[in-house]
Specification:
The complex is a heterodimer of chains A (504) and B (539).
Chain A (H helix, E strand, L loop, with lengths): L1 H42 L3 H8 L16 H33 L4 E10 L6 E8 L5 E11 L3 E8 L5 E20 L6 E8 L6 E8 L10 H17 L5 E4 L16 E11 L12 E6 L5 E3 L10 E10 L6 E8 L6 E9 L9 E6 L17 E10 L2 H24 L14 H26 L2 H27 L4 H8 L6
Antiparallel strand pairs in A: 1-4, 2-3, 3-5, 4-5, 5-6, 5-7, 6-8, 9-12, 9-16, 10-11, 10-13, 13-14, 15-16
Helix pairs in contact in A: 3-6, 3-7, 4-6, 6-7
Chain B lengths: L1 H28 L19 H7 L5 H4 L7 H33 L7 E8 L6 E8 L6 E10 L3 E8 L2 E14 L1 E8 L6 E8 L4 E8 L2 E2 L6 H17 L5 E4 L3 H5 L4 E11 L12 E7 L7 E2 L10 E10 L6 E8 L7 E9 L9 E6 L17 E10 L27 E11 L9 E7 L2 E4 L10 E10 L7 E9 L10 E10 L1 H6 L1 E7 L7 E9 L2
Antiparallel strand pairs in B: 1-4, 2-3, 3-5, 3-6, 4-5, 5-8, 6-7, 7-10, 8-9, 11-14, 11-18, 12-13, 12-15, 15-16, 17-18, 19-22, 19-26, 20-21, 20-23, 23-24, 25-26
The chains are: A alpha+beta (504), B alpha+beta (539).
Chain lengths: 504, 539
């Protein structure tokens, strides 16, 4: 009797013990899960949520802008700036000087930075926005503002004139940098980084040029030439849709998806121009037209002598990479002894074009595209062009890519042989380097910030590797740059080749 | 009878309890699902006031405190990246654990240990606020509040003697407030040499540990015990002021500090070319290390000699023996006008073995371009003897090691005395009426020292160090620090000099504290400030 009741009681006790345990398990588990859910919800609060939590005691210092403010990052950046400035100026000097050498026009024998310091004013990050528009990609937009006081002096040695140091003063950069991270499933989880400047709002890069111990007016048009070239290089190399793709991590990755690729073909027929301005003292202008989508691929018509209403009827084909944002630039020049004079310029946005439908447009010529710089309101005539946009199929795209590569190789060869002076067209090539210098500078600062972000983002253990990656990233940026131009057979280059080399 | 029945009853209870536990286990626990589900997350707007009440303690710090910054963009970034990070981390963990397990299991007669599941779950860690501290020192300090309430699922299956047992970790929650300090700041990327991490609070840790399906952590009392144990263990290691140091850069390399001395003996030159119209050349040699900002060293001029013998010795400080090279240039001295180049050559320092003298006989070249035809021409030869002596470890100047301790004064310091070191870091908002080319004058006991001029800058940075040798502590003395501006143009007769403000610093504090690094408001200046570091070094 005792045995049975003992067994029974024992069993009941045991089972209830287990039941109690399970109850505790459930209780603790739901508590933990509820807490996890709470933290998740509170991790991404919106204004309405906060209103609901706080009621009338809504904290006044809180706002929810699209671009989130990063005061802490700015504080850190200004503290870190002296070190960054010193490190970056060495890196810029090392990486940009070979570029300067390469982009040196024939008239100039030597081109070097005689001085390069980034000044004492640190850049500010006005805000950061993170979004993911495509799976496996994170887009980070950084509102970047730098009204710095760098001291950049370019030593220009021309064959005819002695050394002219040109100083770049009061450099100001206001732009939104878009950084796209391509995610991967291996540490460091980022296989490539794409850096570009957003086209909207338009990047603003201001500076004043000063010839040290002399006057810029000694060489007429130099200042305008520099401005134009800086602008075209920024728009052609850095401004969206153009971009710099930097593969990260040891394993080679296919970055061709990220690269800008030929998307279609634009057939341009330059028909005629009317009422051009006469720039010649004797007789009339000798006009010709140069059209381009990207300044690197500029084509010219033949020259019509002594005519203010010339007819050309010449047809060209240009490659289009991104119809949404790119534009066709039409420039009319007057051929002259020495520097050709520009009679007018006009722009046509490709988005206004229907694929496969021919269109004829008459563009009014302006003296400059920058409306602030237009000095007179005089009519500069008009230019008539016929346009046809053709979207590429897959095969055509590949062929176009090959062709583009071939043209650049050819030009490089010619340049090495000394036939042409620069990979850029002769117009304004002499001052290309200024823009490159700035571009690289921006890139460096951008990546510095990215490095910092990576540091915070990854766990403590990954901090070290993240940093060394940041360091490597820097290195890669530079190798990427130089190999793009030198055409050496580094791995970076091969990646860029299969993705479509985009030199400038 | 009663006794036997009681004994039997106890025995029965014993048997029954084991049976009951087994039955209970199978009834209630064995069939519990062992997988981890994503928690159901409802938008906050839908939740009732009771849940809101429960949430209040978890409100992020940036809402409560205005000095914490919101870093939701970072949270978003992490959220997008998390699935990839999860896979990457788990794969790495598995790869690391595998060889260790394989090495260990034969010792314990276990057949296999393997991860049945390994995932960090769908919830990423979140930053609940970020605070940075600004100090006068060369360091960056930030304090993020990290909360990770995740739903990871780590199941380890152990097989032995044909049986299988599983250990499962679920619902890991870690809340921590680390302080991350980056220092010292160095002028090469990534711009800091070390990361120091320490915890400002004991971290909160919570998790479920299921042994064969039953959660041990839910046994009353055990959870608290384990939690306290973990907290104390972690706190022992990393709770402030204890820190975890992660070296990133070797500060010696980053700063390019001297690592050795190059001993150069310029012996002689042979068959130099005649450059002067009348008589032979007057040669001398200039020596310089590449990437060195120091002025070159020169030998004496040997007049009218095409085979001069100098036998002169020089010591040059080396910063990086791997990349630096010694440049030797032979010039022809002239009474008037520019000295002519007679030829040059370069010796990379990596060709030298430390502590071993090596003699070089160099052909002088026109330039360093190997393909230049002009180099074919003979320009004579130069004989030099080089010895590279690296510093011993204890000889390396250790100023850059961020030692909290103030350095020792040199041996020659008199007893009771010491060295007063003044480091002028930077100034802010200094402005002159006519020009702002600031420099600093430091006056102490009639002795005056000056920094370099910084041209046209309201926020100049000098980073210059001065020292004064003293016989006794300067307890009753004052240090006069004055910011001046001098006209940059040579014709600045109208306003040649201008004072931008001054400050008098009492030195008794320095003697007591050994080191003071502070920002002082300037007198006679609108808004100007100057950062001065003072050290009192004794033997």
């Amino acid at each position: 009797m005792g045995l049975i009741s003992g067994i029974l009681m024992g069993m009941i006790f045991g089972i209830s013990l287990m039941a109690g345990w399970r109850h505790m398990m459930r209780y603790r588990s739901t508590k933990r899960i509820a807490k996890a859910a709470d933290i998740k919800v509170l991790g991404s609060l919106s204004r309405d949520d906060l209103k609901k939590i706080c009621g009338d005691n809504f904290p006044e210092w809180i706002s929810f802008p699209v671009y989130e403010q990063v005061k802490w990052l700015n504080k850190q950046l200004s503290k870190l700036w002296p070190s960054v400035a010193e490190a970056a100026s060495a890196v810029i000097k090392e990486s940009v000087e070979p570029l300067l050498e390469e982009y040196r026009p024939p008239g100039i024998t030597s081109l070097k930075f005689s001085k390069l310091t980034l000044g004492t004013v640190a850049p500010k990050i006005e805000g950061i926005r993170v979004q993911s528009l495509k799976k496996g990609q994170i887009i980070m937009d950084i509102d970047f503002r730098w009204g710095g006081d760098p001291s950049i002096i370019l030593g220009v040695e021309a064959a005819l004139v002695a050394s002219i140091p040109i100083q770049l003063k009061d450099l100001q950069v206001f732009t939104v940098i878009r950084v796209i991270f391509q995610l991967a499933e291996e540490i460091p989880c980022i296989s490539a980084v794409v850096v570009a400047l957003l086209a909207e709002p338009k990047p603003r890069i201001d500076y004043t040029l000063k010839a040290v111990g002399g006057s810029l007016t000694a060489i007429p048009g130099l200042s305008d030439m520099i401005d134009d070239t800086v602008d075209s290089i920024v728009t052609d190399m850095l401004q969206w849709p153009h971009r710099i793709v930097v593969p990260i991590g040891g394993t080679p990755v296919d970055t061709s998806e990220l690269e800008l690729k030929p998307e279609g073909k634009l057939t341009v027929t330059v028909v005629k121009a009317n009422d051009l301005k006469n720039m010649e003292m004797i007789g009339k202008s000798d006009p010709y037209v140069a059209v381009h989508i990207r300044p690197l691929f500029k084509v010219k018509t033949k020259v019509v002598d002594n005519n203010l209403n010339p007819v050309w009827n010449q047809t060209f084909e240009l490659i289009v990479e991104d119809r949404e944002t790119q534009a066709l630039t039409v420039e009319v020049y007057d051929q002259d002894i020495g520097q050709d004079k520009r009679l007018g310029i006009a722009k046509f946005r490709l988005i206004d074009l229907e694929p496969e439908t021919p269109k004829e447009v008459t563009l009014n010529l302006l003296s400059s595209l920058d409306t602030l710089k237009v000095k007179d309101k005089k009519d500069r005539g008009s230019c008539t062009i016929k346009l046809l946009y053709h979207r590429f199929s897959k095969e055509e795209q590949l062929a176009a890519l090959e062709e583009e590569k071939r043209i650049l190789e050819e030009r490089k060869r010619l340049k090495e042989a000394g036939v042409i002076g620069s990979t850029m067209d002769a117009v304004g090539s002499g001052v290309g380097m200024v823009g490159t210098g700035i571009g690289a500078g921006v890139g460096l600062v951008g990546s510095g910030v990215v490095g910092g972000v990576g540091l915070v983002g990854s766990g403590l253990g990954a901090v070290g590797s993240g940093l060394s990656k940041a360091g490597k990233f820097m290195g890669r940026t530079i190798t990427g740059h130089s190999s793009k131009r030198s055409g050496s057979s580094t791995p970076v280059n091969s990646i860029q080749e299969n993705g479509g080399a985009k030199p400038l | 009878m009663g006794f036997i029945s009681t004994v039997l009853g106890f025995c029965g209870f014993g048997v029954g309890i084991s049976a009951g536990l087994v039955i209970g286990y199978y009834l209630f626990i064995y069939f519990q699902p062992s997988d981890v589900k994503d928690p159901e997350i409802r938008p906050l707007v839908e939740q009732d006031s009771e849940t809101l009440q429960r949430m209040l303690p978890e409100i992020p710090l940036w809402i409560k405190n205005p000095d914490y910054d919101r870093v939701d963009w970072l949270n978003k970034f992490l959220e997008y990246m998390w699935p990839h990070l999860d896979k990457a981390i788990c794969a790495t963990a598995k790869n690391i654990a595998k060889p260790i397990i394989e090495e260990q299991i034969p010792k314990y007669k276990i057949d296999a240990v393997e991860f049945e599941t390994l995932t960090l779950g769908s919830l990423p860690p979140t930053f609940q606020g970020m605070k940075v501290y600004v100090t006068e020192e060369k360091e960056l300090i930030m304090e993020p509040l990290i909360k990770w309430a995740g739903n990871p699922n780590v199941t380890i299956a152990v097989k032995a003697f044909g049986l299988k047992a599983t250990v499962q970790v679920v619902d890991l929650q870690v809340f921590a407030l680390p302080r991350i300090t980056l220092k010292p700041l160095v002028p090469s990327f990534p711009c800091f040499a070390n990361i120091y991490v320490s915890l400002m609070d004991k971290p909160h840790v919570d998790f479920g540990l299921k042994l064969v399906g039953a959660d041990l952590m839910s046994i009353p009392g055990l959870y608290r015990f384990v939690q306290e144990l973990i907290k104390d263990q972690v706190a022992n290691m990393y709770l402030w002021p204890k820190t975890l140091q992660v070296p990133i850069l070797d500060p010696a390399k980053a700063f390019k500090r001297p690592v050795g001395v190059l001993h150069v003996k310029v012996v002689r030159a042979m068959k130099l070319k005649k450059k002067d119209l009348l008589g032979a050349s007057d040669p001398y040699v200039k020596l310089k290390l590449t990437e060195d900002k120091l002025p070159s060293r020169k030998t004496t001029v040997k007049h009218k000699n095409l085979n001069p013998e100098w036998n002169e010795e020089f010591d040059i400080v080396v910063k990086d023996p791997e990349t630096q090279a010694l440049e030797l240039r032979v010039y022809d001295w002239e009474q008037v006008g520019r000295h002519d180049k007679m030829g040059l050559n370069v010796i990379p320092l990596k060709e030298l073995t430390p502590e071993e003298p090596k003699t070089f006989t160099l052909d002088l070249l026109k330039n360093m371009d190997l393909n230049d035809a002009q180099n074919e021409k003979s320009r004579g030869q130069l004989v030099v003897e080089l010895t590279y002596k690296p510093f011993k470890d204890d000889e390396i100047p250790t100023t850059f090691v961020e030692s909290k301790e103030v350095q020792k004064a040199p041996e020659s310091t008199p007893d009771g005395g010491g060295v007063l070191v003044v480091i002028i870091h930077e100034a802010q908002d200094v402005e002159g009426k006519h020009h702002t080319n600031p420099y600093v004058r430091v006056l102490f006991r009639g002795e005056e020292k000056k920094t370099k001029h910084v041209k046209k800058n309201r926020d100049p940075r000098w980073e210059e160090e001065f020292s004064f040798m003293l016989d006794e502590p300067p307890t009753n003395d004052k240090l006069h620090v004055e910011v001046h501006s001098s006209s940059s143009s040579r014709i600045g007769l109208l306003h040649p000099k201008e004072s931008l403000g001054y400050v008098d610093i009492n030195l008794s504090d320095v003697v007591n504290n050994k080191r003071i690094n502070e920002r002082y408001h300037l007198i006679d200046s609108k808004n100007g400030k100057i950062q001065v570091e003072l050290q009192w070094r004794t033997k």
